[in-house]
Design goal:
mainly alpha; 77% helix
């Protein structure tokens, strides 16, 4: 059976998945909180601080996934002489910064 081109070759660990899912659920709660703050006509500065917190939390999820990508997908490709995923990782890291 052929591998899906948009799927990892090796599955992520349960620990990593649980960590990321927990973080994403927290971010989802933070976004709901921001929405509530808007509905409550809260002070702009308070809303902006919460938005900055959401952005930082989402970036951290991205960094964790990038680290996993480098240690698994990119590392495996380099061992096989394929450096294309390294170039992809460099481009992805630019987007996260």
């Amino acid at each position: 059976m052929e591998q899906c081109p948009h799927c990892k070759k090796d599955p992520r660990s349960e620990e990593l998945i649980n960590n990321l899912q927990t973080r994403l659920k927290k971010i989802s709660g933070q976004i709901s909180g921001v929405s509530n703050m808007l509905n409550e006509n809260r002070y702009c500065k308070d809303i902006l601080i919460q938005i900055a917190a959401v952005e930082a939390a989402l970036k951290e999820v991205g960094y964790i996934l990038l680290k996993d990508h480098l240690l698994s997908c990119v590392s495996d490709d380099i061992k096989q002489g394929d450096f294309s995923s390294l170039e992809e990782a460099i481009e992805i890291s630019k987007r996260l910064s």
